[in-house]
Amino acid sequence: MIPTKVTSYSVVDLQMATGSFSIENLVGEGTFGRVYRAQFDDGKKLDSSAILSEYSDEFPGMVSSISELHHTNVIGLVGYCAEHGQHILVYEFLKNGSLYDFFHLSDEYSKPLTWNTRVKIALGTARSLEYLHEVCSPSIIHKNIKSANILLDLELNPHLSESGLASFLPNAEQALSQNARLGYSAPEVTMSGQYTLKSDVYSFGVVMLELITGRKPFDRVNQSSGHQCPKLFRHWFV
Questions:
Q1: How much is the average pLDDT of 80-98?
Q2: What is the rounded distance in angstroms from the CA atom of residue 199 to the CA atom of residue 206?
Q3: Mean pLDDT throughout 58-65?
Q4: Facing residues of 87 across strands?
Q5: pLDDT (tens digit per residue) in 65-81
């Protein structure tokens, strides 16, 4: 049963808020569906994530479970839509986008992150992972730790997104397989497809290297010279 503590939106509500899910409001492709910017008549801005239809049977339980996650550094679920075959999650809106955007999509006029800010992002992300692993019962394996899932608010505080999604959806590993190509997955995940708390920590470590170096975990531009984040870091400090 879907809880009443989060708002139930109609398809019409979200169509109006997203301009009928227009391309102009498309934020990007999430691991499990498209993400749209939604602006409501009262001025409130939220992000809506359309979950792939193949997960429709699991949607009520997923909403119920994710709505129980409450932490300063975890993106909060605001509401959902489950009608006319649509399955949409509605989350808080964070204006500064993702950590990935800051490093790899920012234009020449963007200010670089200071070291103090990078430390704040590292600590906040670590706290979100500690919450999922140590406070939640049973523990939640995120399975999708990457810079694109670390969103930043106006003060550049980090908020981990997609928390709980992979754990509550069946066959999520297939959708997550692209992470191995991006360089975030632990070697044992790449080989066996099995996720653990430790594989989350490995992915967190890769993000920390990205935070320090400003490089993608797997830099295709420098592929021939072997410039991958873990290898680069090892070269500096070993």
A1: 88
A2: 11
A3: 85
A4: 82
A5: 899 999 999 998 999 99
Band of the pLDDT at 235, cuts 50, 70, 90?
Answer: very low
- Over range 183-201, report the average pLDDT: 89
CATH number of 7-92: 3.30.200.20
Residue 22 β-bridge partners: none
DSSP at 207: H
Residues forming beta bridges with residue 91, ordered by sequence position: 47, 77
Where in the sequence of the chain do the CATH 3.30.200.20 domains occur? 7-92
Cis bond before residue 230 (omega within 30° of 0): no
Please give the CATH number for the structural domain made up of 99-237.
Answer: 1.10.510.10
Of the candidates 153, 138, 135, the one whose C-alpha atom is nearest the C-alpha of residue 97 is 153
The rounded distance, in Å, linking the Cα atoms of 154 and 112 is: 15
What strands lie across the sheet with 26-29, from one edge to the other?
7-8, 77-83, 86-92, 45-50, 34-39, 26-29
